[in-house]
Amino acid sequence: MPYSELSEGQGKRRWIEIRRDKGARVAAGVLAAAPGGHIMVADWDDLVSPRISQLVADNPEAPGWRAESGFIFDTGRIVYAIEQAMHTANGSTLVIRSDLAGWQPGMTEFDPNWAENMFGSHHKPKEILAKQGIELAPMPFRGVAYRVGTGLNVSEQHEAVYRARKMTDGRWQLLRAMRPRIAMREFTQGLDRPIW
To answer: Are 125 and 65 in contact (CB under 8 A)?
Structure first.
């Protein structure tokens, strides 16, 4: 897909452009992959738990899941464990059964508005599914780690400490601060060998 220039700053117009561009690119990938099963959009600045693939494999008919809890970190020595509503904080937190995401065998294109809302946003898919009476279940483990302060994040640049403090405003809840090695041990629990 061709490169699409984004508006400067963090205004509403820029976010519309980001959702439209991301939605179109993910939709193109979905069409090329022709998936069965479930779809998860994962952003480059996030880590997703390797336990997600087993969760999906064990529950092939489930509508999907949301990462209710996870981690947030920057390049510092502290990782914050978030207990609630992680799915409202970053974009790599939803797993949706492919048919509910709008994909059908033999498809050659997505409606651009559908692609923007289903694949370009991590808020809209829950709303779309809720209108159909479908709820994504919370993952039974910490599903995602959100890396901030890289200088390349699309959203505003904040250090993890600032973001974690912001998360205590009632929408999110700070669980605890921990060292990165401890956090990654918990994140990769159940694997044959640690990845960190």
So the answer is: no
Global confidence as pTM: 0.76
pLDDT one-digit tens code per residue, 25-62? 888 888 888 778 899 988 877 888 888 999 999 999 99
**Partners of 195 in beta bridges:** none
Residues in the chain: 196
The closest alpha carbon to 53, from 154, 143, 117, belongs to 143
The set of residues, in sequence order, having a beta carbon less than 8 Å from that of 22 and lying 6+ positions away, is 119, 120
DSSP summary character for residue 9: S
Q: Give CA separation, 83 vs 16, 103, 140, 159, 173, in Å.
A: 29, 32, 12, 19, 6
Residue 196: the pLDDT is 39
Q: What is the CA radius of gyration of the chain?
A: 17
Residue 126: both structure tokens together = 């829950």
